[in-house]
Amino acid sequence: MGTRLNWLVTIAVLAGLAAVPFFVGTYKTTLASQMLIFAILAMSIDVLAGFAGRTTLCHGAIFGVSTYVVLYLTSIDASSPWLAAVLGILAATLVAAIFAILAIRTAGVYFLLLTLALGMIIWGICLRWTSVTGGENGIRSTIRPDWLLDSANFYYFTLAIFVVLAFAMWRFVNSPFGLSLQGIRESETRMRALGYNVSLHLFIGFTISGFFAGAAGALYAFFNGFVSPTTVALGQSVAALLMAIVGGVGTLFGGLVGSIMVTAVQDIVSVYTDRWSMLLGLMFIGAMVFAPEGILGKIRTMLASRAAQARPAGTPPNQQRR
Amino acid sequence: MDRRKFLKMTAAAAATSTLPRTAVRAADPIRIGLMAPLTGVVAAGGREVVDGFNLYWAKAGKTIAGRPIEITIEDDASNPDTALQKARRLVEQSKVHFLIGNILANTGLAVAEYVKSNGVPYFIPIIAADDLTQRRRIANVVRIAGFAASQTTRPLADYAYKKLGYRKIVTVSQDYTFGHEQVGGFAQTFTEAGGTIASQLWNPLNTSDFSPYFAQIQAAKPDAVFAMELGADASRFFQQWAAFGLKNTIPLIGGSNFSDQSVIRTSGAEVDGVLTSHYFAEGNDNPATVAFVAEYQKAYGILPSFYGASLYLGAMWVAEAIKAADGNVEDRVAFLDAIRKVVLNDSPLGRPVRLDAYGNPVYDVFIRKVTRRPDGKFWNTVVEVYPEVSQFWNYKPEDYLKQPAYSRTFQGIKKN
Amino acid sequence: MTAFLALNSASFAALLFVVASGFTLIFGLMRIINLAHGALYLLGGYVGLVIGVRTGSFTLAVVGASAAVALVGCLVDVGLLRFVKDNALRQVLLTLGVAIVLDDIDLVIFGGDTFTVPVPEFLEGPVSLGGMYYPKYRLFVLVAGVAIYAALWLLLNRTRLGSLIRAGVDDAEMVDAMGVDIKRLFVYTFMLGCALAGLGGVMGGAFLTLYPTADSEILVFSLAVVIIGGRGSLLGAAIGSILVGFLATFGQVWFPEFAYFVIFGPMAILLAFRPLGLFGKAA
Question: By CA distance, what is B93's nearest residue in A?
Answer without folding.
Answer: A27
